[in-house]
Specification:
Strand content: under 5%
CATH class of the largest domain: Mainly Alpha
CATH superfamily of the largest domain: Hypothetical protein, domain 2
Distance between the termini: 22 Å
Structural class: mainly alpha
Number of domains: 2
Number of helices: 12
CATH architecture of the largest domain: Orthogonal Bundle
Order of helices and strands: HHHHHHHHHHHH
Shape: elongated
Largest sheet: none
Helix content: 55-70%
């Protein structure tokens, strides 16, 4: 079996398991999605979803956000971790959105990646989930699974993104990245993983990882 045939079969398995894919982070528009994704760095989606209702009650748009101090933002988002940097980024990107984009989140990778606290992965999530632009956001979890399934060398997230984009048509990217995330949580954890019962690793797992 070729790598492409294996990749296609993995996509088929994921589609059978997750035909309907909810977006993990609760949000109401592109701005609240952007902030939620920023908060999710080194923090679980579950924890972010527990915290954001209080944040949105205080400010769910850039104009309201900048009327509060960075310290006020920090107090709410503290449980997410990295709150000093994240609170500063939220306030500063809100100001930039007002000054440079009429208060709107730009539908551009370049413009998003210029915002404080917004890297390529965050920009990719926003482009995919808020604007429907084909993107394949890769975090360390997707990197781990792509390596485990022999779809990528796994050297870094940038390499993994390129490898996955070569294997899959761009029409699948936005669905696949979410399907892989949900699959990893349910069937393919980093630790305590029984590859013999995993629907994908039992067929295609990198054998050297399971000796």
């Amino acid at each position: 079996m070729t790598k492409q045939e294996k990749a296609d079969d993995i996509a088929r398995i994921l589609e059978e398991l997750y035909p309907v894919i909810p977006i993990p982070l609760d949000h109401t528009d592109s701005y609240t999605l952007l902030v939620a994704v920023l908060l999710s760095a080194q923090c679980t989606d579950k924890r972010v979803n527990q915290i954001t209702p209080a944040l949105w009650a205080m400010a769910d748009n850039p104009y309201d956000m900048i009327t509060h101090t960075i310290e006020e933002i920090r107090e709410i988002i503290r449980p997410c971790g990295l709150s000093p940097a994240k609170s500063k980024a939220i306030w500063n990107l809100s100001q930039i959105l007002i000054d440079e984009h009429d208060g709107e989140v730009p539908a551009s990778f370049e413009a998003l990646e210029r915002l404080p606290g917004v890297g390529h992965k965050t920009a990719s999530v926003v482009m995919a989930q808020a604007f429907g632009v084909p993107a394949f956001p890769v975090d360390t979890h997707i990197q781990r699974l792509a390596y485990r399934w022999c779809l990528s060398t796994g050297k870094n997230v940038d390499r993994t993104e390129k490898d996955l984009k070569r294997l899959y048509d761009e029409s699948l990217w936005n669905r696949l990245h979410l399907q892989i995330i949900f699959f990893g949580r349910e069937y393919c954890p980093a630790r305590g993983h029984d590859h013999t019962t995993c629907p994908i690793c039992s067929k295609y797992g990198r054998k050297s990882l399971f000796k």
